[in-house]
Design a protein that fits this description.
Elements (H helix, E strand, L loop, with lengths): L2 H7 L40 H14 L3 E5 L2 H9 L7 E5 L4 H11 L5 E5 L4 H7 L4 E7 L11 H9 L5 E5 L4 H4 L9 E4 L14 E5 L2 H14 L5 H11 L2 H20 L4 E5 L9 H7 L6 E6 L3 H10 L4 E2 L9 E3 L11 H7 L5 E5 L5 H13 L4
Helix pairs in contact: 1-2, 2-9, 3-4, 12-14
Length: 383
């Protein structure tokens, strides 16, 4: 079946008891046993819930995996996946990563005895040079947040598979399974903050992960159940609701984002635009080869500095200043103090972040209105 059909039907058939077309919300903590030593499919909602099961089946289908997992947040998914490893293991992490990922790696995992190394994974030679006998994980963002750098996922997977002990994991939040499927490129685990495009309505927090290897799936399920990092059934219902329109939303996000990126690239008060759909992007060809689209999030540099950035942010009317991304409404944020503000300044600079960088999550409003909003706001930015 095609993606649009699976998004609506995978794991979501009519309820067998009453024929409800929408997956019911099984708002229960526990399920009755048939006898003292025998339960049905479900016994306790931390271990499994019918609403969550529908979401997990759908996530697996959309990413081309054998098993999907739903979590209470993207960071809950990340934390659970990291528990697959042991103290002393060496992690290779994308040198440009989400602030929350940096925090858990450096403030939590490192303190527990894990060896964390940030590497430019767009440089395959640098990746190969970083691998050690104790390397167990390569953690990838592609595109990276917020500098929109791409990683050749097939090339990284090929390198990792030369070392049986190494797992590869990709944060696929920015593109969603509609535009990119890392498992098809040889990656072991794909994860999402389902808060973002998969849900798409800025009204729920969630996370997800999908694998192809059933044995690896069993290990992740054990941790999911043992750690209890699961979402409630109502959250699962909301995310399933959002998934049904994922394909058509992503097309609108992409159209609007590329239109805005082209407008900004030509504007005299913008110093540069980081969007993989622009031919000016250094990895434009990789984007065309590896993905089916470029999503709705990108970054750009405002000419000048903090004064100019703040003037732009203060005068926009339709773009709310907020962290997160992927909702139907347009958002804008300042990575230096918002999503990446908790990262030490030296590390931010080492990542390549600058004070004049702005990230935008373009919604599905009328493009003409979004362009008009940016035009009037840029008119207020001092030269």
């Amino acid at each position: 079946m095609h993606f649009k059909t699976r998004a609506i039907h995978a794991g979501q058939g009519p309820d067998p008891q009453y024929g409800a077309v929408m997956t019911p919300v099984f708002q229960t903590s526990t399920f009755a046993f048939t006898s003292p030593d025998e339960s049905g499919e479900f016994d306790y909602s931390r271990s499994g819930n019918p609403t969550r099961k529908a979401l997990e089946i759908c996530l697996a289908s959309l990413e081309g995996g054998t098993r999907g997992f739903a979590f209470a947040s993207g960071m809950a998914a990340t934390n659970t996946l990291l528990m697959l490893f042991q103290a002393g293991d060496h992690f290779i992490v994308s040198d440009e990563c989400y602030g929350g990922t940096y925090r858990i790696m450096m403030s939590v995992m490192k303190s527990k005895g894990f060896d964390i190394e940030f590497v430019d994974l767009a440089d395959i030679a640098a990746l190969e040079a970083a691998i050690r006998p104790e390397t167990r994980l390569i953690w990838i963002e592609s595109p990276t947040n917020p500098l929109m750098k791409l990683v050749d996922l097939a090339a990284v997977a090929t390198v990792a598979k030369r070392h049986e002990q190494i797992l590869t994991m990709v944060d696929n939040t920015f593109l969603s399974p509609y535009f990119q499927n890392p498992l098809e490129l040889g990656i072991d685990v794909v994860m999402h903050s389902t808060t973002k495009y998969i849900n798409g309505h800025s009204d729920v927090i969630g996370g997800g992960a999908v694998v192809k290897d059933p044995a690896l799936g069993e290990r992740i399920y054990f941790l999911q159940n043992a750690m209890g990092s699961v979402p409630g059934p109502w959250d699962c219902f909301l995310i399933l609701r959002g998934i049904k329109t994922l394909a058509i939303r992503m097309e609108e996000h992409q159209k609007n984002a590329l239109g805005l990126a082209k407008f900004l690239e030509a504007h005299p008060k913008i110093a540069g635009v980081l969007h993989p759909g622009l031919e000016s992007h250094p990895q434009y060809e990789l984007a065309r080869r590896q993905t089916r689209g470029d999503g709705g999030t990108f970054s750009f540099y405002v000419k000048g500095g903090v004064t100019q950035v703040y003037a732009l942010l203060e005068h926009l009317r339709l773009f709310a200043q907020a962290v997160s991304l992927g909702g139907v409404e347009s958002l804008i944020e300042y990575p230096w103090t918002m999503t990446h503000g908790t990262i030490p300044e030296a590390a931010r600079r080492e990542m390549g972040l600058k004070e004049n960088l702005v990230r935008v999550s373009v919604g599905i409003e009328a493009l003409e209105d979004l362009l008009e909003d940016f035009s009037q706001a840029l008119d207020c930015v001092p030269a």
